[in-house]
Design a protein that fits this description.
The protein has 5 helices and 4 strands. The chain is α+β, with helices and mostly antiparallel strands.
């Protein structure tokens, strides 16, 4: 059998060679390239701006949540004595947040005393509390109850409702 040679399409090659490009501007960039550049810069700026906004909001929320000066500010407050490297503390934090969500809009503050910081350690020592503990304060900043150890969200919700009722 004879091998067949591929038929090269000379006409297509000639046509592609004859396509003229848009004239370049004085800067050497054509209009389509400039539009792509502007679009890409705009998209990049939007992505960076959005990421920066989310990061800033996260930092502000964390700062607010760790503000121990909010105890006694006229709102009932729950302070979690917390070690961020403790799995039981993280589990208690999740359950506490679930319980707070179940309170359906009633006013109660949630504050975290991180025992890895000096201020958090001093706060915990003042009340003789270990990590994996919740301290429940009334509106005047008086300690009303102490919840120690891991608890479920429904148990915590009941404790929080007693705090709000008292």
């Amino acid at each position: 059998m004879k091998k067949q040679r591929k038929n090269t399409n000379h006409k297509a090659k000639r046509t592609s060679a004859m396509v003229s490009h848009q004239p370049a501007s004085e800067t050497g960039v054509d209009r389509r390239g400039m539009l792509r550049l502007v679009r890409n810069v705009a998209i990049g700026a939007a992505v960076l701006g959005g990421t920066g906004y989310v990061f800033a909001q996260n930092v502000m929320t964390t700062m607010h949540e760790h503000d121990l000066d909010r105890v006694g500010n006229g709102v009932s407050t729950i302070v979690q004595i917390h070690d961020p490297q403790c799995s039981m503390c993280l589990a208690l934090q999740r359950e506490t947040r679930k319980a707070l969500d179940m309170l359906e809009g009633r006013q109660i503050d949630y504050v975290v005393a991180n025992i890895r910081t000096q201020k958090g350690r001093e706060f915990a020592n003042r009340y003789g509390a270990q990590h994996v503990t919740l301290l429940l304060f009334n509106e005047a900043g008086e300690l009303q109850d102490i919840v120690q150890g891991q608890q479920g969200s429904y148990q915590l919700k009941d404790a929080f409702e007693r705090l709000l009722a008292g």
